[in-house]
Write a structure and sequence with these properties.
Strand order of the largest sheet: 1-9-18-17-16-15-14-13-10-11-12
Strand content: 15-25%
Shape: elongated
Oligomer: single chain
Number of strands: 18
Amino acid sequence: MKIFSKAQIYEGDALTSKKQGITSADLMERAGTQIFNWLHMRLQGAQVPIHVFCGIGNNGGDGLVVARHLITHGYNVKTYIVNHSTTRSKDFLNNYERIKNTTKDWPVLLNDASELPAINEKDIIVDAIFGIGLNRPVDGWIKQFFNYFRSTKAFVLAIDIPSGLATDKAPKDPESVVNAGYTLSFQTPKLAFFLPETAKYTVQWEVLDIGIDPEYLYTTPTEAELIGKNEVLPIYQPRQKYSHKGTFGHALIIGGSYGKIGAVTLASRGALTIGAGKVTAYTPKCGYLPLQIGFPEAMVITDKDEEKISSIDFNISPNVIAFGVGVGTDKQTITAFEAFLKTNKTALVIDADGLNILSKKKSLLKLLPENTVLTPHPKELERLIGQWEDDFDKLEKTKAFSKQYKCIVVIKGANTITVFGDKFYVNTTGNPGLATAGTGDVLTGIITGLIAQGYDALAATIFGVYLHGKSADVLIENLGYQSFIASHIIEGIPLAYLDLFKQPEQPKIEDEADDDKK
């Protein structure tokens, strides 16, 4: 699914009006009706008090359409106009007149001197105050309303985007944004729904189709894409009957140090379980017995050093090499890594201390093969690209870094984002169970194992991140967040693969014979 920018959303609206021969007011009616339909399907006429707060722009106009339909369908609704400016949009005014002609209970005008309306915990608040066009800080008296919404503990439904939240920058004041329990976003989700600093302003979100021109949606390239099952299915490479282990490549995992051999074991197991034909682990001598006993499917090459990687010397020809898991940052290790980079031409995946070495000696970044995959957690990313102002700035800095060094960067988090050049790929799988030691090592192995099989580096990264999260998703119901450990991801990989081809369950239809037996 594409994630359109604010400018593209406006462009799509205008093009739709032109091609479909409708006005912007018609499009607003369509959008507001979809919101009403969503509510009506769930409430089925229930007389729960609904408070619709409308701004005086187009988002407020959407709210007025919702309120009008709620009124005409007999709901217990109260409408308010948050009168924060003297400028009103034409479509807002049009719908303001329409609602006044619909009911004698006209919308209540609210300003900085108004009393706060009575709202109870079991009421519903519809937030239609500000949309994506907001380009200035929220005023103090309106913040009082937002804080009041929070204090009532009522369910808040936001139209298109929580009021006060921008599409391209994080708010400096958390009180200036509505906290929505649910956001109904028109046609496309907003990038802000997936970033740590801004995702917290809506617990859940859903996209509503308001009929934006299909050709525009299909042909317009976007900076960001949302990655789910439909997006990764075309990436999957089926296996042929006469394949053999050589068909699916050889992955080399270089890493480990005394006390951190588990990291190499996890990465090696991840690479083989995801489908690599062969996996070799290159470790210090202290890693030989743990790997041979704990993971007999892997081959092992040892460094001459007992406790660390002090040289990188092997006589095999892997298809891809992963470096960094558990490797440490000893001076000899850094020297060995630099010497390796100067001669290496094989595809690379770099994680953990491999990234820390690159941060300590950034001249090494120029030695990376094109399309090298880097998988930093937030602190490792900061060491690579520097500090950022907010999550949007982080993405821009990562994009610049990716373009400069022609590499793929995986920003690990609740919605892991893969950055490559000018594109962001936002993953939808995964859960808090992944917040435990070793899960990043497994991800490194998964991506490495996919590249070994012949997936190109970007496809392997997008697919690998998806499968890594999906493994946790299919297991978490039986394991729970707290008890989930990195090894469980490896156990869940087969289920994640099978889930790709799982069909949604169809509702059971009882036949007449069954009815006769009752």
